[in-house]
Amino acid sequence: MESKFTEVYQQQASEDSHETDCEKVANLLDIVIDGEATSDQSEFFTKHIEDCVTCFESHQKQKLLKGLISGHLKRVIVPERLALSIKAKIQETV
Amino acid sequence: MRIIRDKRLYKGTNLSQMSEETGKQLSKEEKDARFEAELLPVLDPLYNFAYRLTLDEDDANDLVQETYLKAYRFFDYFEQGTNAKAWLFRILKNSFINEFRKKSKQPAKVDYSEVEGYYNSDDVEGEGGVTTTTDMRSESVQDLIGDEVASALNALPVDFRTVIILCDLEGFTYEEMAKILDIPIGTVRSRLHRARNSLKEKLEKYAKTMGYNS
Q1: ipTM for the whole complex
Q2: Interface size, chain A vs chain B, as Cβ–Cβ contacts under 8 Å
């Protein structure tokens, strides 16, 4: 989308595009930490957070949040009898 | 919940199963062995999922049993070597919606003031930055973090809890989640996003009571 702007418009556009980049990154946060981003999206994301502290921090936070679930949520222990009772019920079932 | 399915009457007369798709004869023993080999390894994640949905061990137990019995009934339709975990999670989630959702307990409320009181009463003071850093590695603190994460998660609406468990605990892809939950991938994404915001809010509130700034 190349078009001619006046100086004022250009300035606005560059501010807007910065804002849009941060917004884009915010929208990509989840798919990036979940490993669902395309290589283009990842590249854009990585480049942006190298320069933008705010987005860098949001990324750190989002990773931390995911890590809290995967790393700290205790797994409940399956009752021993459960597997046995499933097997027994299955054997009874024709 | 009791699942009684007394088919002993038919035992012996119908020991072998006919697979409709392949037309291949499969003895009950073979079917059972295959069923156990393919599907029982999912028992642990499945039980954990059931527990996080129902927040009750007995309900989780019933839900998992029900899921396996349903899976057994439809095992002929299960293609060997395909995603057994996603298949079972989908069956369990449907059973949960159909039967358990109505009677499952309300999410536990987190009482932050209680947590706060506990910390203030002990040697962990707000400014004890060094102490806190050291303590962060101790087992009891790890346990407390785990408990707090669990409380915050349990306080989320069940739809939010579900996507977080599927994604962050079980590592399902968005595509698998969409299949398990019967929703489009776009909905998976937006639901996950809202769920994380909500979880973040709850945990940040907790972090503040402990004197951390987010």
Answers
A1: 0.78
A2: 99
